[in-house]
Write a structure and sequence with these properties.
Elements lengths: L31 E5 L4 H6 L5 E6 L2 H13 L8 E6 L5 E8 L2 E4 L6 H23 L3 H15 L8 H11 L1
Antiparallel strand pairs: 1-2, 1-3, 3-4, 4-5
């Protein structure tokens, strides 16, 4: 299922948008979906807050390569985008922040106790972000929410924790 080496392909195209994936990447029978969260207020109000599926892949390694390909298309001056790889049952397999040509993968929690600590810390950061927003500190509030999202990205489904940790070791 996991085929290596994990190659990083360079692109020569424009860097203002994500490169298109091949047409075969939309096959719903593929096991892994590369997704990006929809955080626009209009999406949340309209009920379209479900993650946007960028492409589907047969293996986790292919999905990780797809995330890197997507990151290569992110403009250097844009904020990092949170990408997630989900399995067929929409369980979180792996997540990371994509920015100018790279993906910083979040290492999964390895126990229920660690998961509770991460949830607690993320909740505290969101509370701090709310207070910062109340004080019109929008940049600080945004950074705190992003940090909380990165912590939440560590909450890999228990079924995938050990596998995702091993995949990150191999990819490193």
């Amino acid at each position: 299922m996991f085929d290596l080496p994990l190659l990083i392909h360079s692109t020569t195209g424009p860097r203002c948008f994500a490169p298109p994936f091949s047409s075969g990447d939309t096959d719903p029978n593929h096991a892994f979906a590369l997704t990006m969260s929809r955080r626009a207020p209009a999406d949340m109000i309209s009920g379209r807050a479900a993650p946007l599926v960028l492409a589907r892949f047969p293996t986790l390694a292919d999905a990780m390569r797809g995330a890197i390909d997507h990151a290569e298309g992110v403009a250097p001056d844009t904020a990092p985008q949170l990408l997630a790889i989900l399995d067929r049952d929409e369980r979180l397999v792996l997540a990371g922040a994509a920015s100018d040509g790279a993906v910083a993968w979040c290492h999964p929690v390895m126990s229920a106790a660690e998961a509770r600590g991460v949830v607690s810390e993320a909740s505290q950061l969101r509370a701090q972000a709310g207070r910062a927003a109340d004080w019109s500190e929008t940049d600080l509030a945004q950074r705190l929410r992003h940090h909380a999202d990165l912590l939440d990205a560590r909450l890999i489904d228990p079924l995938w924790r050990a596998f995702a940790a091993r995949a990150l070791q191999i990819a490193a």
